[in-house]
Protein 1
Amino acid sequence: MDANHIETLKNRLASLYPMASLTMDQPFNSNGNWMLDIIVYGRLFVVSWSALYVSDFGISTITEDTGYGEGPDLVVHSLEEAENHIIKLIDQEFEYE
């Protein structure tokens, strides 16, 4: 399976946030969702991506109030938008540490 887009995002975030834990799960079938869990500064962010919708990324901030299957907080339509939004979320969290 080709995960170039989400692998690229993972690699970019790993270079920007070497202290982050980045875990990627691949789908069972080629049209399923790839999931990237990002744990940084004690917070969990999840990015979903599917080869079916190559340019779309779903982004969620996971808290104790987040329910299973709620869907993403935001859908962005490019790798650059996804990267910029995640950086913004992480940097906002860091401001409060």
Note: The first strand starts at residue 21 and ends at 25.
Protein 2
Amino acid sequence: MGAPSAFRHQGLGATIRALCSEIRRLYLEDETPWVVGYSGGKDSSAALQLVWLAIRELLAAERTKTVHVISTTRWSSSRWSRPGWMRRWRG
């Protein structure tokens, strides 16, 4: 049997909903801009995806905080391409 799942107790969907709820709470807590690091690896991809999923659920009037994404990837490189969901993200 493999390693125990981090989602064993709540399940994947419930865990993602709980994380997004916490991210929205933190986002609305103050006006401090956010900086999200993105390397293209699985951890930073998951973190950025969770931030995006959380913020997109806010009303437009609530999306006032600046969120900067700092990337170590080369978007213009033929090896790397920006994910489709990121191209569509307009804040």
Note: Helices lie at 12-29, 42-56, 84-88.
Protein 3
Amino acid sequence: MKHDDVESPRQVQGSGSLSSITPGERALRWRDVSERLGGISKTTIYEMVERGELPPPRRITPRFAGWLETELTAWLRGRPVASREDERLERARARRGQVRRGR
């Protein structure tokens, strides 16, 4: 069993209240979260948490805080679907960045 897998219900510190982890629920480290969010950096993850754009990690043990896989999945499913316009704007931003770096 990996240490990220939680076998039995435990009390964990959430954002101000205690909640239970159900058997078989997985706690994700920031690297796992980064991978699921397209490779964003640790700094970006914690900035998103600070701005309230991403659920905060939970205290699992005194030395480990992580995101519950079910909570992250629910959050992702609730995000808006990217549109063609979003893609066009992102490409335009990337082009402007490339031009600036080339000067």
Note: Residues 10-102 form one domain.
